[in-house]
Batch of 2 targets.
Target 1
Amino acid sequence: EIIHLEDYQPTDFVLERVDLTFELDPLETKVEARLIFHRREGVAADRPLVLDGDELKMTGLLLDQEPIAAEDYTETGETLTIRGLPDSAPFEITVTTELSPQTNTKLMGLYRTNDVYCTQCEAEGFRRITFFPDRPDVLAVYTVNIIADKATVPLLLSNGNFLGGAGMGDGRHFAAWFDPHPKPSYLFALVAGDLGVVEDSFTTLSGREVVLKIYVEHGKEPRAAYAMDALKRSMRWDEEVFGREYDLDIFMIVAVSDFNMGAMENKGLNVFNDKYVLADPETATDQDYANIEAIIAHEYFHNWTGNRITCRDWFQLCLKEGLTVYRDHQFSADQRSRAVKRIAEVRHLKAEQFPEDGGPLAHPVRPTRYREINNFYTTTVYEKGSEVTGMIATLLGPDLFKAGMDLYFDRHDGQAVTIEDFIRCFEEASGRDLTQFSLWYHQAGTPLVSASGTYDASRQTFTLQLEQTVPPTPGQSTKQPVHIPLRFALISEDGTITEASSVSGAEVTGDVLHLVERSQSVTFEGIASRPVVSLNRGFSAPINLHFEKSSADRAQIARFETDLFARWQALNDMALDALVAATASVRAGTPVVCDQALIDALMATVSDDALEPAFRAQALALPSESDIAREIGRDNDPDAIFAARREIMTAIATAGRETFAGLFETMRSTEAFSPDAASAGRRALRNSALAYLVLAENAPTRAVEAFSAADNMTDLSQALTILVHRFPDTPEATAALESFQTRFADNALVLDKWFTVQATIPGAATLERVETLMAHPLFNGLNPNRVRALVGTFAFSNPTGFNRADGKGYRFLARQILDIDPRNPQLAARILTSMRSWRSLESGRAEHARAALSEIAAGAKLSPDVSDIVERTLKG
Ligand code: ARG
Ligand code: ZN
């Protein structure tokens, strides 16, 4: 069944209040829901009340405390329809259901993780708890009573403020919670169990005292300190930058080890995948710390962008997600190095969102149809949604953007709204017409901008010819030109940035050039010498840019741009050109030659002590194998790409050997571990130097030494990865893996890393290793983190292993998807998206991929999640 945006209708009945009582039991939890409704004005008296349900066992149904006659209601698996309801007076429906949290492996609704009761309701999980109008535009005030055995379930939590609790005399106890803020059901949460806690407090700008609590498994409390610190910094930042204060007396975070996604912004009670809460130097990498900071902030920021103002329907998901990602990006940029953060964001966007937008699963940021909403929690909705928000900020400038946001918070607080409502706030605040700009929300596909420049020395003019096309995507064959804000600089021969005396052919505001036509010719006057154009500075628009440049011109940008992001982009473009050329050489059987200008530019950057180490590490991180495949676009041979990349890296390693050896020493830390960005940057640079050194030396020795010497997880896991990926099956690699496993045997999050290192060893033989690991006693097919660490990373991050020429990687995936789907459809569907680029493979592999997809499609009783993804992947 397909849901269409255009079919949106408000509910017939208005929900006023919700009263929930849970009697918790692993296999027989009783839920009583008392719901007060009234018929919406103008709705015909014969319209029934239709409530959503999913795999529910209903044990009672009352209208105003009286049983409802059998002929007055119909219950199917998915709906409860009640007829003969009062015309205008409010009435109370009482539904009792019985749940089995212990056997709920889908991790949606009420489930158990490590003996803790916990819920996940977004998007449509609440209907797995009780029959309910389970849609985001139904906002109500909730009271929640929780009853459970006191000894085994001492902690009883729900949204809002704590009302009270007491023992019940029979070994049980209860707690009551009241959330005064009207909310949709997807923000409901309940957590109950035996957990440890870290406590702190925060005083808001207006003087409200807020209790902060982070709940973790007993014994793990010290590992929640960084998350608590990140939370307090997020709260302060949202006050200072967006003027948003927290609005309850308590804010709680619970870390659980079985969770389908990253985390969930339930009102006042965020639930987190513990991977994004727990950290200490011994067990967390710098990337883990950065993720924790970003996700703690993200979920906290949802309190305003998502909770106080929510979505009218799930088509509007980007209203809260794109905007909240934009906010967490800004937060991290303020806490760390803005340029380095931007580079990481763009790398992620290109690695994850661009392939989605260019493949069978492409969809608009604001889709108009879906079969399974869980499949739309995508990088397009999140990351492209964030980029689109960022472009509004670029178009309007900081002050008008702020005015638009203020208007949005002011006007829509307490409402469930649409993208159109959001855009209107910026139009009204700025007086700008954003009609054309809005196409970014509605047209799928990454726009391609082709640019070329001509310099006229006699006239002292420079003309930039720009053309844009938005490629066709499934369901959208033709596209309109969009409004593309391109930040730019003209760099003269001496490296200075040139200002034109006048510009014609495009609106230019500050350093932003507005490309609005399909084709635009822009002339800059008063340009004294041939300039090099740096286009899309800071990645001001999420586009593909084709701008043929000599490597000398790219090197000019890499050397002189004042925008650090653009310097990195220029180096990365040079590297990409070299890698694409090298891949062609490998396939043609001719020798690979590495562009000397690339080596020189890289070495100049890496040796420049004026640049922050994190930036230099980003320069050294060449485009990935999938970046190269995407650039080539079709007929890809992952083995050739891997070989070409290895050769280019070796050429750089050989040329820069002295430099890398020097950096490996100078970047060594002499101080106690600190997770701050500057220290992390030094570790990043030192570890990239190590990777190149090991290539140049062609021996495992140095990696083995680094592994033994490491005093933090970043260095340890990097050394392990370098060793195991470069020299798999050597006694050194085997010994290191063994010692790592023994040392962290009781830490699930670190063991995930152990699985991932092995799943990502390049080469066809890794499939057999992965299959062996599936049978390892530490593998656990019920834990999403573990499944992602092994099966997910193999499929997503091991191009040569997964894309084995004999197709066995795809067949392995097909078996795994069919195995995971019945117990956890969301997880299965997510991992299956690793097949999204199958059409750009060479024909032999593509045929194998198609066969594996067809095998999945033919599976008996597929979930809507998997069947939606597999059908779109095969078709698009
Ligand atoms: N709203 C959550 C976040 O981004 C994601 C929850 C997604 N859950 C799901 N079952 N699709 O912060
Ligand atoms: Zn979110």
Note: The mean pLDDT is 98.
Target 2
Amino acid sequence: KSLHQIHSRENLNSFVNVRSQEELYREVEQSQERYDSGKPLSSIDGLPIAIKDNIFVKDMECTASSNILKGFRAPIDATVIKRLKGKGALIVGKTNMDEFGMGSLGMYGYDEKKIIKNPINQEYFAGGSSAGSAAAVRAEQALASLGTDTGGSVSYPAHCCGLYSLKPSYGRLSRFGQILYSSSNDVIGPMARTTDDLHSLFSIMEGEDVNDSNCINFQTISKIRNRERLSDRQGEGSLKGVRVGIVQEFDIEELDARNRDMQEELKRLLQDRGAELVDVSLPLVKYALPFYFTLVPSEASSNLSRYDGLKYGHQFDFNASQSSAQGKTKTELFDYIERVRSEAFGINVKRRVILGNFLLSSRFEDFNEKVIDAQKIRRLIIEEYCSVFEKENIDMIISPVVIGERPPKISEVIGQSDKKNPVYEYKMDYYTAYPNSTGTPAITIPVQETDQRYGEFPTSFKIQGYFGEDYHLLRLAKQIE
Ligand code: GLN
């Protein structure tokens, strides 16, 4: 069915690369044999999974939707892919995305004409940057998918396409084999149709990795507050004994009526199921976005400096006659690199790289100080978050995913200069960039409303937990589901 949907709904542009039918059929047969002999490798054996194109799948092209990586084949499987394959997952293909993960709407892939469309209504965006991963699951081209989240790229497309998603704690899933955008923010996260699927994928992928020094053992961390025991005591659907923080600072003037109503309804539902609501204040929330757009471009410009048209991917004609770098003078080489980067990077990547270069350049001390300030602010944001969780003894906080009643319409953004203005997109990350600044887990939970006012688009809300309490948060999501 997935393969059929991939081909019949090609116009969604959710995939950049699909595996060959023969290979897929062979793997399906092998999986079938395992089921027939009563020995499936796991609950995800044979499950069709789509992978964002910035995660390595061995021998498949991996471009992060950038022209600069055209033709680059992944020499290895990313650790998460290796673990999924080991449990029988069926990797169907690589999904389209905003170049290097920079964007919120799925319109900055390497082919400008191939905007990723929302399967619910193709006149609308599917969110971003993991737009293809969300569209693929919504269109049943895969049963689950992997995205990456720097400042909302898993949560937001899941919201637009009515899916569940998990942005895990920072360092919980290995990023070995992931093309990085912002090293101190990036995490890999699953999207699916149920919390059970999220749970299965997460538990298979998580855990220490010798190839990634950021990926640590969370066993001890998750015992700090001993929340796991609490969830074991609960009956199905019950939130008895669960304390939920209601964050004063999330209630901002710009929040639309739909989100506002939904938050109120959610509070009632949580109380009905036995949860206790606790008013909390996180005054530093408003600094998460300025922090994000200071540190992230700096890390991006540094991470992307390796793409010079020499080491990886597409090589450009060096001097019309020769395409080799050997025997060139320094100036010729620099000219070449400049030309390659000018031609191959898209507009959004250039914006981030140029901003990052300014911030990091030794010529601009004022800017350098801002990067240091951003890091100090992050430390304060984290301390505030943890101390509120500890002092108030709360299990989670609730939050909208994004301001706005539905995803933007493609025709309202493309060709409209004010909407193409990057600041419009930056503001979209107000709620989503927060859990990346704290490095803490967040789950998007879709809501099927019957209210006709908002048309066919579902909405969603987010629950956010304490650092390392990903399993606890997953269990709470299941109780709410
Ligand atoms: N929209 C944000 C950005 O462009 C988030 C992207 C992401 O999480 N990868 O940076």
Note: Residues 281 and 432 are 18 Å apart (CA to CA).
